[in-house]
Design goal:
The structure holds two protein chains of two kinds.
Chain A lengths: L2 H4 L2 H5 L1 H4 L1 H14 L2 H10 L5 H23 L5 H10 L4 H20 L11 H19 L3 E3 L10 E5 L7 H13 L6 E5 L1 H5 L3 H7 L3 E2 L2 H9 L3 E4 L4 H4 L16 H9 L3 E7 L9 E2 L1 H7 L5 E2 L19 E4 L16 H25 L6
Parallel strand pairs in A: 1-9, 2-5, 2-6, 3-4, 3-5
Antiparallel strand pairs in A: 6-9, 7-8
Helix pairs in contact in A: 7-8, 9-10, 13-15
Chain B lengths: L2 E6 L4 H11 L4 E8 L11 E4 L6 H9 L3 E4 L12 H21 L5 E7 L26 H19 L4 E7 L1 E3 L6 H6 L4 E4 L5 E2 L1 E3 H12 L10 E5 L5 E2 H8 L3 E4 L1 H14 L6 H9 L6 H5 L9 H12 L6 H19 L1 H7 L1
Parallel strand pairs in B: 1-2, 1-4, 2-3, 4-5, 5-6, 6-11, 7-10, 8-13
Antiparallel strand pairs in B: 9-12
The chains are: A alpha/beta, B alpha/beta.
Chain lengths: 372, 353
Amino acid sequence: MADAKVIPFDDDRSRGSAVQRPSRRRSAGSRRGGGVGEGHEVGEVQALPSRARAQDDGSVPREKQREQLQQQERPDQPHQAAQESQQQQPSAEDGLERRIAGGLAFLRRRLTGDYEVDDFGYDAELTDNVLMSLLRPVYEKYFRVEVKGIENIPAEGGALIVANHSGTLPLDGLMMQVAVHDHHPAGRHLRLLAADLVFVLPVVNELARKLGHTLACAEDAERLLGQGELVGVMPEGFKGIGKPFSERYKLQRFGRGGFVSTALRRGAPIIPCSIVGAEEIYPMLGNAKTVARLLGFPYFPLTPTFPWLGPLGAVPLPTKWTIQFGEPIPTGGYPPEAAEDPMLMFNLTDQVREQIQHTLYKLLVQRRSVFF
Amino acid sequence: MGKVVLVTGVARQLGGRFVRRIQRDPEVDRVVAVDAVPPEHHLGGADFIRADIRQPTIARVLAETAADTVVHMDVTATALGSGSRATVKETNVIGTMQLLGACQKSPTVKRLVVKSSTNVYGSAPRDPAVFTETTPPKSLPSGGFAKDTVEVEGYVRGFARRRPDVAVCVLRFANILGPSADSPLASYFSLPVMPTVFGYDPRLQFVHEDDVIEVLRIASHEPRRGTLNSGTFNIAGDGVLLLSQCSRRLGRPTVPLLLPAVTWAGTLVRTLGMTDFSPEQIRLLTHGRVVDTTQMRETLGFRPKHTTAETFADFARSRGPGLLPPEALAGAVDRIAALPLAGGGHPPTQSAN
C-alpha cells in the first residue's frame, strides 16, 4: 500500500527527471542551509546538505567544534587526528603537542598491554581512539547519517534499543553505534548483540568483541542490562538483513520476542530505533543459496555489482541515512512474572514493531532522495 | 574433638602447599596426605600415606584414619613426571569413583571438597560471554581433561544425592597461575615466541595459587555466618585479560597462525609426544572463557586477594623478561616522545614568521 509512495528509489533513477532533479534539490538544500534552523542541525548532527559548501565555509567551525568536543571528552587522541589537525590548523601547536603526547601515551599503553577490557572483551580505549575514528568517516562523509531523537536515550541506566536490520552487511549496527557514541550528551556506549556467525569468523569476532559486541543471547543481554549498559539489538536477525530488495523497509518477524522478556526481567525501557538508508546500500536482487550453503552463510547476496565486479562490487552505495530513536517504552511497571506471560510479550513485541514500522514510513515520506 | 582432613594429590606443589596451610588451622587435629607417589616437598607435620586412589585401598585408609573432611585435589590435566594421558584420565575418573565409593561407605565423612575446573564449560563461539554455575555447555567437551572434569562432577553429583548428610563443595577453578605454576598454560606462557590463532583474541581469567589455597580452606571448614560452602562455585580473579595483553605484558612476541594450522601442529606435537597440548587448550586459546563469580562472593563469602591482572603480573615476574620486555618498549616510546617535544618547539617560530 505505502510502497509506491514511500520508496522513491526508482523515481530518482528514472531517466527523465534525473537531470533536473538533483540540481533542484541541491539548490533547495543550500538555500535552506542559510537558515538558522538548518545551521543548528549542521552543527549538531553534522549532516552535509551539499559537500562543496561544507568544505568552503563550514569546515572551520565544525573542525573547531569537534576539536573542543574531543578535548573535553578524550584527552588522548590518536596520531591520525593529530596529524589531520596539523594540516588544517597549524596555529594550534599547543593542542597539537598535547595530542602528540596523548597519542604516544596511548601507543605506550597499547604496546605494554597496560589497558583494561571488561568481561565481554570490550576495549573502551581502542574503540574510542582507533575503531571509532575509522568508522567516523564512513558515518559522516559516506553515509552522511542524520540522527534524530538522541534525547530519547536515557543518560544513565540500562536501556534496550531495538532497531530494524537491513543492508546485507550489518553496517547499520555499526553506524548506530557511532551515532550513539558521537551524539549522546552523556557519551554513552552502545553494546550491540550480534549473531553467532560474527563470533565464528576470525578477525571479525576479535573486532566485534573489542567494539563491545556480544552474542545475542538472553544471558548476555540480561547481564549487560543489569550492569546498566545501553544494549542494542536487531531482532529481525538474518531474516531482516538478508531480505530481497523488493521487500525493503518491510519489517520481518521480530524473532520470538526474547528481547521483550529480557527487558521486562531487568525493567529496562525499550527504545525503538528506525534506520533509513541502509536498505539500499546493497540492493539484494538474488540469493545464491547453494553458494551460501557451501560457505556456511545464511545467504549469499547477488546485487547489481556483487559478485560480478569482484571486490569493487562490495563497495556499498553511498546512500543518505537517517537514524531516528523513538520514544522509550517503559517496562518497569510490570510485575516480575510478566516476563513469563506470552500474551503480554507478543503485544509488546508488536507495539515495538509497529512503532518502528510507522517511523520508517514517516521517514521515507520525508526523505528527498535515496542518495542525498 | 578436632577435625581429621584427608587430602589427595599431595605430590603436586598445590596439594603440598594446601596440606602445610591447613595444619596451622586450630580446629584441625590431623592431616592425612595421600598420593600414589611420595612428594618431593615436605608436608609439615602431616601423615603421608602412600596409596593409589585408583585402588580400593583408599577405602581402608579412609576407615582407619576416620577422616571427616576429604579434599580431593587429584583431578589434574597433566601427569606428574612421566605419565601418559591414559594414566591421568584413570586417576581423574576411576580415582574419583573409588574415592567417592570409599566416602559413601564411611560413616565419619561429613564434608567433601572437590577441585574441579572451569574446563567443564568448554569453549565455543556460540556460548554466552560469561558462564554462570548453571550455564549448560553448548558443546560438551569431546575428550581430554575437560571431559574428565565433566565426568568427575557427574559422579560427585551422584554421591551428593546418595549421601545428603555430607556437605559437598565443588570448586571450579579458572586457570591457576602463580610463581610455581606448572600447568600447560604456564608452560605455554613460558615459550619465547607464543603461537596464537590468527583472528582470535581470547579472553582469559586467572586465579592465584594463594587464593586457591585460601578458598579450599574456606570450603573445608564449617561455613562462616551468613555463608554457605556446599554447592558448586566458580573461582576466578576479578577482571579479564586478553591473550594479546598477556603476551605484551610478558614481553613475548606472538606468531598468529591459521586455525587449521594450529590444530594440525597441535596434533603433530601430541603424536610426537613432545608436550600434552590438548585440543581443549587450543579451544581455550581460540575462544577464551570467562566465568561469573557472583556466587563465590555472595554465597561462599570469598573475595580473592589477587585480580586476574595481579595474578598474571605475579606470574610474569617469576618467569623473567621475554624477548620484547614491556619496560624496553615503554622506554622506546618515551624516547620518541622526547624527540617531537624538542621539534614541537619549532612550530611557534614558523607561525611567528
